[in-house]
């Protein structure tokens, strides 16, 4: 049995400071550019002010990309265009600077941290700092068996909490959250369908490499079968992650919730991050106030999850490559909002009208 009590997060997570947000809105009305003329940048600046509890907003100077990685047993069913158990190759490409997220992060000057939770490779084939939180090698085939034991799910969740604490303690002021996996969009879709009460076909997307129709049908069938196993455990979020999630998804959920506890803003990338955020919302309803949806990846499951959390994507470029690449594209927008909110001049205060001189008594 797990000793982890997820209900504690409901009490630990507070909303961003509403009073500070009102102060930011008032300050925005005094700036020389008319309110509303900057579109969503106004809203973003006010959100950042509330998250930082600071008016004017402080610049976002120490962002970081955090990527959780794992392989999924359900990939054995041919639900992905990538070969089974090859997520470690994607991780190496990211670490060596040759992946899309690595290129974007390098261009933006943002460090990247990769956390291996369940890659299907020998741990000594990757750097120690990458594999130190690993829970297991691969995960169970969620259509017929649990992805993890409850103890493994607990360990993965607590690893995510630990990573969030490490980032907050090191001075990271905003996280771009991504994932690297083979088969990961399938458990993500199962979680979203289960929590939203929808059918498999509603949430089944084409994945990062745009799978063909036959692969899509296999994926849809796998999600349908896993949904039957998910519904009986919907009331226990940790058991749900163990049953139809995976170590990387459990860790991302823990990371998101603890980031909200530590008041560390997070930009979500694609459908996997959205699924974990949806589980986090079920645990603590105030948590999504600390998260931004970086982009619309085009995955139907992501759209369903973001709608349920009332999160509107900042960008709509259909980036499905994962690794946090789509969310990285949104980072300059957030930084621009912070700069405009803090640096636009204020209108000069109008001089007070002079009081009328009192007439002398006759």
Structural class: alpha/beta
By DSSP (H or I, 4+ residues per run), the number of helices equals 15
Q: What percent of residues adopt helix (DSSP H or I)?
A: 40-55%
Q: N-to-C SSE series?
A: HHHEHHEHHEHHHHHEHEHH
Q: Main sheet, how many strands, which sense, barrel? A: 5 strands, parallel
Distance between the termini: 92 Å
Number of beta strands: 5
Shape: globular
Q: Write down the overall mean pLDDT.
A: 93
β content, as a range? 5-15%
Gyration radius, rounded: 22 Å
Order of neighbouring strands in the sheet with most strands: 2-1-3-4-5
Enumerate the spans where pLDDT stays under 50 for 5 or more consecutive residues: none
What does this molecule look like?
The chain has 15 helices and five strands. α13 (271-283) links the parallel β4 (266-268) and β5 (291-293). It is globular and about 80 Å long. Strands 2-1-3-4-5 form a five-stranded parallel beta sheet, with helices on both faces. The protein has helices at 8-12, 18-29, 40-52, 87-95, 100-108, 128-131, 150-169, 185-196, 200-203, 213-230, 237-244, 247-261, 271-283, 300-309, 325-343; strands spanning 63-71, 112-118, 174-182, 266-268, 291-293. The longest helix has 20 residues, at 150-169. With 362 residues, it is of the alpha/beta class.
Q: What topology emerges from the helices and strands here?
A:
Layout: H1 8-12, H2 18-29, H3 40-52, E1 63-71, H4 87-95, H5 100-108, E2 112-118, H6 128-131, H7 150-169, E3 174-182, H8 185-196, H9 200-203, H10 213-230, H11 237-244, H12 247-261, E4 266-268, H13 271-283, E5 291-293, H14 300-309, H15 325-343
Parallel strand pairs: 1-2, 1-3, 3-4, 4-5
């Amino acid at each position: 049995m797990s000793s982890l009590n997820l209900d504690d997060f409901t009490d630990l997570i507070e909303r961003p400071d509403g009073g500070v947000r009102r102060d930011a809105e008032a300050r925005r009305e005094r700036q020389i550019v008319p309110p509303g003329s900057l579109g969503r940048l106004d809203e973003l600046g006010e959100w950042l002010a509330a998250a930082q509890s600071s008016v004017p907003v402080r610049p976002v100077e120490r962002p970081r990309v955090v990527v959780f990685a794992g392989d999924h047993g359900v990939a054995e069913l041919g639900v992905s265009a990538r070969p089974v158990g090859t997520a470690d190759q994607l991780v190496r490409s990211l670490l060596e600077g040759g992946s899309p997220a690595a290129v974007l992060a390098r261009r933006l000057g943002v460090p990247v941290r990769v956390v291996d939770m369940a890659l299907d490779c020998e741990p000594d084939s990757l750097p120690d700092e990458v594999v130190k939180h690993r829970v297991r090698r691969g995960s169970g085939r969620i259509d017929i068996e649990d992805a993890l034991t409850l103890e493994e799910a607990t360990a993965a969740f607590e690893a995510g909490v630990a990573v969030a604490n490490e980032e907050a303690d090191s001075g990271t002021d905003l996280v771009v959250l991504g994932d690297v996996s083979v088969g990961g969009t399938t458990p993500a879709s199962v979680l979203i369908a289960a929590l939203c009460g929808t059918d498999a076909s509603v949430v089944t997307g084409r994945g990062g490499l745009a799978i063909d129709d036959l692969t899509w049908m296999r994926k849809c069938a796998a999600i349908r079968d896993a949904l039957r196993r998910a519904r009986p455990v919907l009331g226990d979020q940790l058991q749900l992650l163990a049953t139809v999630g995976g170590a990387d998804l459990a860790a991302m959920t823990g990371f998101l919730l603890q980031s909200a506890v530590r008041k560390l803003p997070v930009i979500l990338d694609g459908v996997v991050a959205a699924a974990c955020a949806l589980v986090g919302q079920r645990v603590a309803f105030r948590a999504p106030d600390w998260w931004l949806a970086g982009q619309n990846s085009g995955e139907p499951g992501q759209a369903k999850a973001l709608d349920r959390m009332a999160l509107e994507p900042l960008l709509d470029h259909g980036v499905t490559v994962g690794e946090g690449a789509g969310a990285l594209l949104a980072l300059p927008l957030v930084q621009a909002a912070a700069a405009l909110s803090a640096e636009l001049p204020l209108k000069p205060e109008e001089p007070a009208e002079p009081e009328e001189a009192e007439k002398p008594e006759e």
